[in-house]
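My current task is to audit a protein record that another person submitted. I have pasted the whole thing underneath without changing anything:
***
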Amino acid sequence: MKKNGSRVFFFFGFFSLMWMFFCSTFLGEAASLDDTLARWSRVQSFTGDFGGQLDLRVTWFSEEYLSALVEDEANKNLWTQDEKENYLYNLLRTLEIDEYIPVEVSIRNYGPSMHMAPFDDMITLRINNKDYKPVDYDKRFNFRLQGDVNGYVYFPRFDENNKPLLEGAKTVRVTLRAGISSILAGDVSFFWDIYRDNPEKLFSGKAMRQFEIDRLLKRTKLLNSRKIELEEELKGIYAELLEVQKRMDELQHQTD
């Protein structure tokens, strides 16, 4: 009887230790993911002279942030690897990260109404000491705001020579103009060090293979459209050549 009791105690102790190890590992991983998400999603809060609260959050979609976001969602929802890949694929499609530099802007306004239209005049992205305006943004930012709103803002990823704007950049800054709210005394800026960011890491796995296929299909469509244009232009050139040759033959015949 004493021997059986010892076994029960041993197994109970073993499983207790395993459970404690699992919990500590899971909680440690969750804390690490939270730290990573917070590092790239910055928030600043302001209080008006006559009351009212304004919270501004801007998120920079680094490779580290996106990887942590996918892992966090997978842990919460107990996703399979395929579900994780599908989530990443759909997220990257929404962000249009192959063509633009996306940021997410979240505003919580419990103060005077905010009037931010046109919003592309109210936000800039600075890279290598040069400011860039959005090429597109969530148009809800143009509406009068009291309460909450969040949406994506898209900045150019390439310059006029198709060179990546982030190539060689060490720091980026997103600035919201003071004019978005009477609570603000000046412009509000959010900074990130990106010199260690490695977006190429995203371009692997099933999700990114599908993402690359989509990009190539889009490119193929553009090339086919251009091909049709050039074929029509070539037909016109052939027709003109025939007319020129016909006229030359006529003139030659008259000379003879």
